[in-house]
Amino acid sequence: MIAIIGAGKMGEALLAGMLARGHEPRDVLVTEPRAEHARELRERYGVEVAPAMDAAKRAGTLLLALKPQDMVALLDELAPHLSSDRLVISVAAGITTAVLEDHLPTGTPVVRAMPNTPALMGRGMTAIAGGAHADEAHLDRAEALLGTVGEVIRVGEQHMDTVTAISGSGPAYFYFIAETMIEAGVAMGMPRATAQKLVGQTITGAAAMLNDSGEHPVVLREAVTSPGGTTAAALRELERHGVRTAFTDAIEAAHDRSRALSGS
Q1: How far is C-alpha 89 from the geometric centre of its chain's CA atoms?
Q2: What are the b/e assignments for 146-175, b being 16+ CB within 10 Å?
Q3: Which residue(s) pair with 28 in the sheet?
Q4: 143 burial via Cβ count (<10 Å: 0-12, 13-18, 19+)
Q5: Residue 218: how many CB atoms within 10 A of its CB?
Q6: What is the distance between the alpha carbons of residues 197 and 61, in angstroms, rounded to a whole number?
Q7: How far apart are CA 89 and CA 154, in angstroms?
Q8: Is the pTM here over 0.85, yes or no?
């Protein structure tokens, strides 16, 4: 049995993805303290909603989808009800496997995961890293669960703060770019709905080319950029305003914040 502890947006996305990929509602427990949302989950998905301690006793795999600031208190609450043969998967930003292990029974296998919000559409990107007691079978199990909402990649835990900076936070950067492009179109007299459609499909198409062509982004960018043309003029302005440096600094700030959340 699998327990999802925390049924916010990410927790519910994982629940919906698991059920869509063949997991039976009777094999999933959900912990949700908000009574109204708990009722909605039961009605919408047919799953049992149970207290966290009950879920810890009954489930072989626990997927912890809480905010980082709530994680340690939850682990301390659950630890007396867990045995070291349970797999614990955490999607809390910045919480290291060492922190998880320190608050769980000795030898508990843990997997740290960082999904992003496109998981809500089944198109997420999740990176996972195993703790000291997680073997290939545990990583396979975590990958299978998280793969229900998108792609999964395995990384060394030393890269997880970078994953958070470029992938976990990454969708917000693209939304920021999209917002700017749409507003520019509106300022030039275009209807907002038309500008949003153009920008959305342009970003979707560009992402597909980046993923599917195998080409380096420099090659793809140069294919759009004719000498002396409109794209060259636009890129010259972006460079003049230091956009490349600003993005690098922004990603480094997100990385540093993730490290600060972990206390490392």
Answers
A1: 13
A2: bbbbbebeeeebeebbbbbbbbbbbeeeee
A3: 2
A4: middle
A5: 8
A6: 41
A7: 14
A8: yes
